[in-house]
Amino acid sequence: MARWFSIRPSITFRGRKFNGLRGWSGKPLHPPLTDFPVTCYLPVGVFDFISDLLGAGNPKAREFFISGTHVIIAGAIVSVGTALTGYWDWLKSAPKHTQAWRTANCHMALMLTVTAIVIVDIIVRVRAWNSDQAELGVAILSVLAAALVSLGATYGGSLVYDYGFNVETSGDHPVWHKSEKDVFPGQHSRVTRPSPGRTKQAGLDLLVESFDDLVETFSLFHFGGVEKSSLFFTTSCGTQLALSLILGGFIHDLVAVARKW
Questions:
Q1: Per-domain residue ranges for the chain?
Q2: How big is the CA angle at 77 (ends 27 and 20), to the nearest 5 degrees?
Q3: Are 89 and 166 in contact (CB under 8 A)?
Q4: 58 exposed, middle or buried (CB, 10 Å; 0-12, 13-18, 19+)?
Q5: What DSSP designation does 27 have?
Q6: What does each C-alpha distance from 114 to 42, 155, 223 come to in angstroms?
Q7: How far apart (Å, rounded) are the C-alpha atoms in residues 162 and 170?
Q8: How far apart are alpha carbons 119 and 135 in whole angstroms?
Q9: Are 221 and 242 in contact (CB under 8 A)?
Q10: What are phi and psi of 27, to 5 degrees?
Q11: Which of these, 9, 29, 31, lies nearest to 153 by C-alpha position?
Q12: Residues 94-142 pLDDT 10s
């Protein structure tokens, strides 16, 4: 079981730091809450467009309008928590005057604009509750909210997937090492890492291996073994090219080991 599935660490809260409105380390509150406004506002734009297209004479037009009203109100209710947790993330996690901070500003400005549009949209809907269809003005507001929430979500996605915003670990982490033993929250800092001495020894081993390859290949070319048996190295030009490539690899390894020192 442990060889194929890791179950407990992802659902464990023990060992995670509680950050108030931001949630827990590795379990922030804002990202899952954003799913609701996005998935609510997008279909509302589609529903209102269809309702307006069908017209007042079609009973389906009112059904789409009423459905859209229920969905947009649900999205607006959840967006209150989304906005609060997002603001706290921006306040506590975004260093000012960085690209990540400026991207977060774009994300927040777009989402606040969407919220304002949605509030106006709901007010107009409630006042026109008995309408047989989504009026053109309502449809325009809904489609605009759907477009802007998609754009805002794009900036939010960049914060996470491009910049690692609020991601607990970026870079080397024991969960990416080959192992059948799970690492639980708070444990990764206690995982043993290779000592500098072992790293240097590994670099020396790589250098020796690279040098052996160079000597072996040179010997083959010198005695004509490769030229006689390979179609790729039948000319002296091909021989020189191959030797240059292998020598270049050896020099690259040499420089890499020197930098580790």
A1: 27-167, 194-260
A2: 30
A3: yes
A4: middle
A5: E
A6: 12, 14, 75
A7: 11
A8: 16
A9: yes
A10: -135, 65
A11: 31
A12: 788 899 899 999 999 999 999 999 999 999 999 999 999 999 999 999 9
